[in-house]
Amino acid sequence: MNLERYPYLSSRDYLDYEFYSExxxxxxKKLVVYEKINDEPLVYNLAFxxxxxxxxxxxxxxxxxxxxxxxxxxxxxxTIGDFSDHYGRPMIHIVxxxxxxxxxxxxxxxKIYDEICxxxxxQGYRDGxxxxxxxxxxxxxxxxxxx
Amino acid sequence: xxxxxxxxxxxxxxxxxxxxxxxxxxxxxxxxKAEEAKAFFKKAGFPKGKLSTFNHDxxx
Lengths: 147, 60
Known about the structure:
Radius of gyration of chain B: 18 Å
Order of helices and strands of chain B: EH
Order of helices and strands of chain A: EEEEEHEHEEE
Shape of chain B: flat
Structural class of chain A: alpha+beta
Distance between the termini of chain A: 12 Å
Oligomer: heterodimer
Number of strands of chain B: 1
Largest sheet of chain B: none
Number of strands of chain A: 9
Largest interface: A-B, 50 and 44 residues
Helix content of chain A: 10-25%
């Protein structure tokens, strides 16, 4: 996988990551957090968003519009690799905070799918069933797993 | 839910480990998203897993 990405930092337990988006609106601190939600099968939820500059907590409803969505998503994809290598390559659940945001994730995944499919298996949920990711389908949620 | 305690050794990675990165496990958004995800999987079920382990041959 060779995608343009931001440099990022990881916590010592590889569950929390941070990096800076840089664009027309300046530098915006982004957070990626993995939280276990099921043991068998092993599934983690990925929470992603901006850091609240007031109190440092994660916000998932901020539209930063820094014109770098693909670079941000690629950076998140790299954190999935780091995380997966340390936690047994579990399934990782990804969904946007809104339907629109989930759609934007899907568009970004489609753009880089040819790069990421060599490293990750991506499945999407639609019409009541899971299926392997297709570029032109609309999904409610995604599960990514490192191969 | 309790966070994973057992950490496997690194085999690859692009991130730099830093003591400055704090845990966000207790952030309201992280908790809310985890609860929503659990509810979602109760409804949707879990996918079958990786392509490499998925049996596409349905002919029996």
